[in-house]
Amino acid sequence: MNKYKIVDWMNNRIFPNKVFKTFEDGWEYIYNKFDNEEDHQEYFVVDINEKERGQIWKLKTTNQSQKY
User: Which of 15, 34, 35, 62 satisfies CB 3.0 to 4.6 Å to 39 for a cystine?
Assistant: First the structure.
């Protein structure tokens, strides 16, 4: 069973202590947290295992150092 988290458009995790059982639960949280509909465009509900921005950068630098 998948779990979900909320990230912003830069792939930063917004609510680090929140995990959602369903994709829809994640979006419901966004809708309840932010009244302005334009703010909703800034966020995404993604699988909990998707890499976050800091994890991607660390992975890239680790892989580059292994090439040399």
Answer: 34
